[in-house]
Amino acid sequence: MAQTIKLALAGAGAFGIKHLDALRNIPDVQVVSLVGRTLEPTKEVAARYDIPHVTTDLQESLARSDVDAVILCTPTQIHASQAIACLRAGKHVQVEIPLADSLADAEEVLRAQEAAGKVAMVGHTRRFNPSHQWVHKKVLAGELGIQQMDVQTYFFRRKNINALGRPRSWTDHLLWHHAAHTVDLFAYQSGEIVAAHALEGPIHPELGIAMDMSVQLKSRTGAICTLSLSFNNDGPLGTFFRYICDNGTYIARYDDLIDGRDNRIDVSKVDVSMNGIELQDREFVAAIREGREPNAAVAQVLPCYRVLGALERQLNQGA
Predict the structure, then answer these.
(1) What are the Cα distances from residue 167, in Å, to 14, 159, 162?
(2) Is the predicted pLDDT of residue 58 greater than 80, yes or no?
(3) What is the mean pLDDT of residues 35-54?
(4) Mean pLDDT computed over 301-314
(5) Is the predicted pLDDT of residue 166 greater than 80, yes or no?
(6) Per DSSP, what are the bridge partners of residue 30?
(7) Rg of the chain's alpha carbons, rounded to an integer?
(8) Which residues, in sequence order, are bridge partners of residue 70?
(9) How far apart, in Å, do the first and last CA atoms of the chain sit?
(10) DSSP 77
(11) In what order do the strands lie in the sheet with 193-200?
(12) Integer Cα distance of 241 and 232 in angstroms
């Protein structure tokens, strides 16, 4: 019987609950501590998931001897500092995407991981969705060559609310959060990114962020990517990936995949689950047990944040 991995989860909001649901399906894993911004709602979530310890202070969880690892589903702006705190406390850590909202902070997390020698992974879920895994396996087998990725990331978020329709305590960002998914996935599927350009629309007067953005990428293989992002789009919502390949066209939406003629592709046998979050969490737990670097380790995804940093400099210079 495998040793039980005991976890603390910080961030009891919409995405934290997705992880709690996923972790229920992984054998020999127990969430022993839940960290939230306010105590009473966090207690309610803990009661639903039978989590014995509840706190509003991450340090309290890090001080517990029964916590082996931490999953961070907290606001973007504190991802890096909290990930570093976890590593310095001797805990393995998975931080939800994005790793940081600056290249300097992302690099600091990598230094902390190297010093601690612990597993440090980032929630780049697209690497784990069965739809994208199916494409990745075909690319590695030499059966597909990607010519272009055409990606739409669309939400309707003119007010600062989360996926549950509740007010957020922080502001989301098209570049450092939503573009990070595609920048990393494009490099994962097509190779190192050698050129990147971005344009952004007007800054929202209250949220202080661009509500529309366009990103263009080119990989060392010659493949190109066009990414359109918006917080102004009133449906359909989510992210749609069109892979235009030398041997077919494929459209991925989260865990589902169809070809260019709307024929559904069965990806149910690609992995042990059809839930990308669960597969991501399974990789985190397996890497801890096996003492190895996980897929989407901090070191592996850092090139994505270098590209995001370069794009941010372009946007600031054009302001």
Answers:
(1) 12, 8, 6
(2) yes
(3) 97
(4) 98
(5) no
(6) 6
(7) 19
(8) 8, 93
(9) 58
(10) G
(11) 193-200, 212-219, 224-230, 146-154, 238-245, 248-253, 256-259
(12) 19
User: Has residue 167 got a pLDDT over 80?
Assistant: no
For 24, the token pair is: 């229920």
Rounded Cα distance between 34 and 163, Å, is 20
Cβ neighbours around 265 below 10 Å, total: 18
Q: For 286-293, which contacts have Cβ atoms below 8 Å and span 24 or more sequence positions?
A: 287/119, 287/121, 288/5, 288/68, 288/69, 288/92, 288/119, 289/2, 289/3, 289/5, 293/119
CB 71 within 8 A of CB 79: no
pLDDT digits (tens, 9 = 90+) for 69-119: 999 999 999 999 999 999 999 999 999 999 999 999 999 999 999 999 999
Nearest Cα to Cα of residue 97 among 113, 117, 83, 111: 83
Residue-level pLDDT at 157: 77
Q: pLDDT tens for residues 179-204? A: 999 999 999 999 999 999 999 999 98
Question: What pairing do the DSSP bridges indicate for beta strands 193-200 and 224-230?
Answer: unpaired
Please report where in the chains the tokens 């210079």 appear, as a residue.
Answer: 317
Q: Which amino acid is at 134?
A: W
Residue 158 has pLDDT above 80, yes or no: no
In the block, tokens 């990936």 appear at: 241
Please name the amino acid found at residue 172.
D
> Which residues neighbour 184 within 8 Å (Cβ) at sequence distance 6 or greater?
124, 126, 127, 296, 301, 304
Count other C-beta atoms under 10 Å from residue 246's C-beta.
9
> Contact 85/92 with Cβ under 8 angstroms?
no
Q: Taking the CB of residue 105, how many other CB atoms lie within 10 A of it?
A: 18
pLDDT confidence band for 1 (50 / 70 / 90): low
How remote is the C-alpha of 35 from its chain's centroid?
19
Helices (H) and strands (E) in the chain, counts: 9, 13
